[in-house]
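step: validate -> pass
step: tokenize input -> pass
step: predict -> running
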Amino acid sequence: MISLTDSQKIGMGLTGFGVFFLFFGMILFFDKALLAIGNILFVAGLAFVIGLERTFRFFFQKHKMKATGFFLGGVCVVLIGWPIVGVVLEVYGFFLLFRGFFPVVVGFIRRVPVLGSLLNLPFISSYVDKVGESNTMV
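step: predict -> pass
step: emit ->
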């Protein structure tokens, strides 16, 4: 079993609450306040989980500057008060930032009993394989 430090446990909680508030804010027709709270909690939780220095190095790598700009720019746009535009920018930046992790996530989900059988259906499997392959190219 993986052992977590206290700050990582706090980070997992903050990240979870951040995802909850982001999801809830989108369900409630892009509520500005919920989306802003979700963004702040998500980024703070990520910093707690992997540490401030590693978070900074992850976001500000030279080849990820475009993705970081879109993600953090989307956060700022949400905080300014344009939630729909901000969320679109954030989602694009998120996929650019984390595209290297998608094949790992797909491989993990394929080993989960119910979800794995869904991903192995013919019409879904071909799409998931295509997305996984295109995301490995940087």
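step: describe -> DSSP finds eight helices and no strands in the chain.
step: cleanup -> pass
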